[in-house]
Structures are given as C-alpha cells and as structure tokens.
Design brief:
The chain is about 65% helix and about 5% strand. By secondary structure, the protein is mostly helical. One of its GO terms (cellular component) is plasma membrane. Belongs to the ammonia transporter channel (TC 1.A.11.2) family.
Length: about 475
C-alpha cells in the first residue's frame, strides 16, 4: 500500500475539519433549509417553483464561483472594491494554502476549503433574495439574473468588506455577513420586487402557508446551520468560534421571544410565522457582531432585532404607501435589510477590544471600547452596500427586460395556475393521473380535495386550455 503524502507544515487538521463542517452547515441552510422554508411558507401552487428557485441558484452560483467569481471577491486587488477575476480550477491550485492576498490573511487549511466555504455564503445570499420574488418572477429571468447579480454586486460587496477592499482597510466590522449577505440581499430583493411587479391581487390578499410544519422544519435547519455561518468565520477552530456560536444562539432566542411577545400584545395571539420572522431577524442582526461582542451585547442586539424589524414590518411597512406598493413576498427587506443594517450599527457600539483582537479585526473596537468613530464607519459601509445594490439590481433587471427581452414577471395564466403551468409538476401527486391540491386552511374549516387530472383539466380557463395545467383547488 502506498504511503500517504506528508501533510504540509501549514495544515492544521482541526481547523480544516471545522471549516469544512461549517461550510457544510451553511450549505444545508440553503439546500434543503431554505428550499423547505420557502415551499412551506407559500400556497401549494407555488411550492415547487419556490424551492426550485433556490435549487437552481445553488448550482448556478457554484459554477460561476470556481470559473471567475471567487478571485473577484477574494483575490488580488484590481480596483479598491473588486479583485481580478479568474479560475480556481487550475492544476493543483486548490491544494495550496488558503490566503486572501489583498487582506494579508492566511489560514491553516487548503485553498479548496476556503473556496467552498466562501461559495456557500455567496449562494445563500442570492437564495435569500429570492424570498422577495416568490409567486411571480419568470423562472427564465431568474436563471439570467443569478449569475449577473453575483458578478456585478456580490463580488464587490465581498471584496470591499472581507477580501481586502477599501471598507476592510478602514476597519468596517462585518463578522460574518450582516452587510455583505443580508443588507445586500434585502436591498436587492426590495429593488428587484419593485421592477418585477406584484403578485396577483388574490395572491397578495390570501398568501397563506400551505404547510406550517414544513416552514418550521426549514426554519430549524436555518437556525442550527447558522452555527457554521458565524462559527466558521474566524477561519479556525478557535475560542472565538465558540463565542460566536453561543452569541448567535443567545441573540436569536431573545429576538424570537421579543417578536412573539409583541405579536401577543398587539395581535392577541402568538404566531408561528411571527416566531420564524423573529428568529431570522435575530440570526441576521447578530451576524455582523457574533464574535466581537460580549454575551450581554448579544442579548441587547436580540432585543433590538426582535422589536425594530417588527415595527418596520407591521407598522411602517403597512402605513408608508411606497413600502406597501412594493410586493416583497416574504418581507426580505424587513428581515434582512433592516436587521442587517441594525446589527451593523449596533456592532459599532458594542464591539469589544478583546473580541476584535481575537478576530484579528482592523478596528480596535466600538464605542464602548472608546472608539466612537466606528459607528460612522459602520454607517458608511451600510450606505455603500445599499447604494451599490440599488443601482446594479435595477440595471440588471432592466437589462434582462429591455435588452434580452425576457419578461421579469410570469404571464397572467401562469400566475393563476402556478407550478403546473411553469414546470408541468405539482407539489403533491399520488398515483397515476391524480393530483392532490391542498388548499390553505383556516382552523381546519376547509376540506382538502383530490381531483382526477383529466377531470380537473376541464376546469382550466380557455386561455390555458390544452396545456397540462390544473386549477388550484
């Protein structure tokens, strides 16, 4: 038997094992976590398309990532906000030590591990954004949008804040993606939803999750997967990784409890959908701060993330005409843009000197560490991410619509029918020729019905007759 090659001196097997584990946990957040969450949160007729949008984006981002996008985000500087694009699939290149040359950072694991770890963050950013487009975006437009947005928007944010760009060297703190991932996906989701246009009026008025248990299952995967999301960003199996994991869970639990409490106070009942939203805002808000704040800082951030986005979603979003006009299907703007910006601002206050040293951050800490200027840099970083995404998301949407001439929104017939019209597939099928549609229920008062496929076809509107589509019950 041939002997195993000697491990290089720079390799720390523990760090490598943890980094691969953390990356896999983040991947599970997208596939299947967000696929299940999205499929459960939408009516039956949109379950397949919603999950498939996430499934497609995961694959599309990976191919773009290894061909050119990784180096644009984490390679040698080309401009102050982006690196030189190029492939990472060259012979033996992936076996080298992982380094971020523009940030002067080296890790004790292979470059291949770093490429995969950073890929899953890029993928989940696009998939989170999809939550704003569910229930009406043309799937072909989505297929084009994903690689364009990754190229023109995500790589710039990642390089600027993490890869050694100008925000990195000015000390902007974004521990694990409050700006790069959540503020960008929330901003782009809101802007994209404006350009795509709204769902059908009936869908906007009655868009009830068809499976609360599926929704909760997806939410649970998302929560536990966040241990890798935040725990992997020290690039080592270090004490800081453990602190980040604990702070993440503490903040998330507090945020969920605060959101649920507000639901009870103002609406009279605890809501599972509300609890999931509070969970998400807690996860998002702690992300830029996870390893650089103390435990009490995580609790304060959790109180803020359970209340400020609640007000944004349930009061401001319903009273400001422009906010109400933009059809952000799952409230991605509130749960990601608002919570991400909030967390980024609060880390400017609560980042400790010891936490920043443990993370090897450029910043000496936040306002509590005597560095009040950090708040200003956090605001500046947020403004750059917002502005860049508003411009490029709009430009990409208009390019797809007017240059490529691909409609951004589905046809009225497709919007009426859903998955059967778009993919020729339904979420729940049993036996030959039988499609089971599970209508939204309120307290169990509506009865589930099953229909023979041929009989159901006769009920399809004339505009879509002859195509293999079935009306939603």
């Amino acid at each position: 038997m041939a002997e195993s090659p000697t491990a290089p001196d720079w390799l720390d097997k523990g760090d490598n094992a943890w980094q691969l584990t953390a990356g896999s946990l983040v991947a599970l957040q997208s596939v299947p976590g967000l696929m299940i969450l999205y499929a459960g949160m939408v009516p039956t007729k949109w379950a397949v398309n919603s999950a498939f949008m996430a499934f497609y984006a995961f694959a599309s981002v990976l191919i773009c990532w290894v061909i050119y996008a990784y180096k644009a985000a984490f390679g040698k500087k080309m401009l102050p906000f982006v690196g030189v694009p190029g492939p990472v699939v060259e012979m033996d290149w992936e076996l080298r030590q992982a380094t971020l040359p523009s940030a002067n950072i080296a890790a004790n694991f292979p470059l291949s591990t770093m490429v995969y770890f950073q890929f899953v963050f890029a993928a989940i950013t696009v998939i989170l954004m999809a939550g704003a487009f569910l229930g009406r975006m043309n799937f072909r437009a989505w297929m084009v949008f994903v690689p364009l947005w990754l190229t023109l928007s995500y790589t710039v944010g990642a390089f600027s804040v993490w890869g050694g760009g100008f925000l990195f060297w000015h000390g902007v703190i974004d521990y694990s993606g409050g700006y790069v991932i959540h503020l960008s996906s929330g901003t782009a989701g809101f802007v994209g939803a404006y350009w795509i246009g709204p769902r059908l009026k009936t869908d906007r008025e009655r868009f009830i999750p068809h499976s609360t248990l599926l929704m909760l299952t997806g939410a649970g995967i998302l929560w536990i997967g966040w241990n890798g999301f935040n725990g992997g960003d020290p690039y080592a199996a270090s004490p800081d990784a453990g602190a980040a994991v604990l702070n993440t869970n503490v903040c998330t639990a507090m945020s969920l409890l605060v959101w649920t409490g507000l639901d009870i106070i103002f609406f009279g009942k605890p809501s599972t959908i509300g609890a999931v939203q509070g969970m998400i805002t807690g996860l998002v808000a702690i992300t830029p701060a996870a390893g650089v704040v103390a435990g009490w800082g995580a609790i304060i951030i959790g109180v803020c993330s359970g209340s400020v986005p609640w007000v944004s979603m349930n009061i401001i979003g319903k009273r400001v005409k422009f906010m109400e006009k933009v059809d952000d299907t799952l409230g991605v703007f509130h749960t990601h843009a608002v919570a991400g910006a909030l967390g980024g601002f609060l880390v400017g206050i609560f980042a400790t000197a010891k936490g920043c040293i443990a993370f090897a951050a450029i910043s000496p800490g936040g306002a509590i560490a005597g560095n009040g200027k950090q708040i200003g840099w956090q605001i500046a970083g947020a403004c750059f991410i917002i502005g860049w995404n508003v411009f490029w998301t709009s430009a990409i949407m208009l390019f797809i619509k007017y240059v490529l001439r691909i409609p951004l929104r589905m046809t009225e017939e497709e919007l009426l029918v859903g998955d059967d019209a778009i993919h020729g597939e339904s979420a729940y099928t049993f036996g030959d020729g039988v499609v089971v549609h599970l209508p939204p229920t309120l307290h169990g008062k509506e009865v589930q019905k099953s229909y023979d496929l041929e009989a159901a076809r006769s009920s399809v509107s004339p505009a879509v007759a002859g195509r293999k589509e079935v009306k939603d019950a």
